[in-house]
Amino acid sequence: MKYENVIVGSLETNCYIIYCEETLECAVMDPGAEPEKIFRAINENNLKPVVLINTHGHVDHIGANKDVKERYDIPLLIHSADVPMLKSILQSGLALFLGAKTSPPPDRLLEEGDEVKIGTSSLKAIHTPGHSPGSLCFIQDELLFSGDTLFCGGVGRTDLPGGSWDNMMDSIRNKILTLSDETLVLPGHGPHSTVGQERNMNPFIR
Asked: Each residue of 81-126: pLDDT tens digit?
């Protein structure tokens, strides 16, 4: 499985286009803004979108859900606990700033351990509440798409509605740090890292 990282929007969200080299089927993960930029990356790689995934429901990760879903007619997946965020008026001010559109409702709800098939491979969902109640990470071999749970040298903020520092630490320590040190961490913002680097160097979890 391969991926392209498209950085979108004023908050520089990492939108990942995750694809199967054999079939060229792909998932679009966290299309926060700038849909044309995402479409261009898909077209340049001759990819075939089959699924749209949100790691969580914050507006900078869902702002272009509507555009992507309408363009490719693919199912939208998110954890059940974050479904209310897709239309939350609490995000309306930031949505205006980011140029986000109201998201369509999900087609499938993901829970711990669910798999999302992409061509001949699949992503496994890991429920990592803390940044939001329904935050998800996704693992495939030694690739971890960590959403806004774990960053290079940082962790997701927990001061937004539904956030919990205790849940965040539990998710990181008991679900992410159990992975091998070589696992590549691909976060929702900023540069990539590895589980080993974060285990040893991240000041929030040492």
From this structure: 999 999 775 556 777 778 889 899 999 999 999 999 999 999 999 9
What is the domain-level CATH number for residue 135?
3.60.15.10
Contact at 8 Å (CB) between 51 and 61?
Answer: no
Range of the domain at 24: 2-201
Cβ-Cβ contacts under 8 Å for 132 (sequence gap 6 or more): 56, 57, 58, 81, 82, 85, 148, 160, 162, 163
| Whether 158 contacts 172, CB under 8 Å | no
Tokens of 46: 């001759």
Global pTM exceeds 0.85: yes
Q: Name beta bridge partners: 27.
A: 18, 51
Let me know if residue 57 belongs to a domain. Answer: yes
